[in-house]
């Protein structure tokens, strides 16, 4: 295990687990934490031993969003618009959204503002029954600034996105599941095992093919069907030339399960 004052980080059996570790601040994101997360993502992206990333929080919150104490201090010093939180958060959101390996948000409690946005950047969102979601922006007389206005219409539709953003209500786990904000809800005590099972399945899979698939899904919304089919063909050729591609074909011939190494 490695650690930063505000983060815990472990890698085991191909699964990297990053835990936001500011429970007294409900895991709020100050600039040092944002930068430390970016550094960890870069490290895990470059490490072939990491095949899945899990992001969760310590204590009773997943993440309360921006650190309002840091925000208030910046306002007192007259640098609220220039102290760099938004720019640093944008780097983080782009890094996590563009992470080539599968990502899982294990939402163990309340996810507010940029904390909710952090979960939206992940491929899979599993929530504890006690999880709660709140946009938080309009309640502070702000508009979204960490990706919610991009992710939410794509995940839950335009009208539901407006309900969450405009009315700034607190959505429970069941409503999040019903609208598609999360893909699974577990009893609180079952969340770790459910996340571990999903992460293990993904870690045993063809990591290179997952990466190509993520890019196809991400970029496909900007293409016509004909353009997407061309992109799929190009990605398929790369997958077929990968070591996992060769292993999958050999395993099919030999009528056995493939053993993927993630390359």
UniProtKB/TrEMBL annotation:
UniProt keyword annotation of Lyase present: yes
Keyword Lipid biosynthesis: no
Domain of life: Bacteria
Pfam families assigned: ECH_1 (PF00378)
Coiled coil: none
InterPro entries reported in the protein's UniProt record: ClpP/crotonase-like_dom_sf, Enoyl-CoA_hyd/isom_CS, Enoyl-CoA_hydra/iso, Enoyl-CoA_hydra_C
BP GO annotations: fatty acid beta-oxidation
Keywords: Lyase
GO molecular function: lyase activity
Protein name (database record): Enoyl-CoA hydratase
Native source organism of the sequence: Pseudomonas batumici
Lineage of source species: Bacteria, Pseudomonadati, Pseudomonadota, Gammaproteobacteria, Pseudomonadales
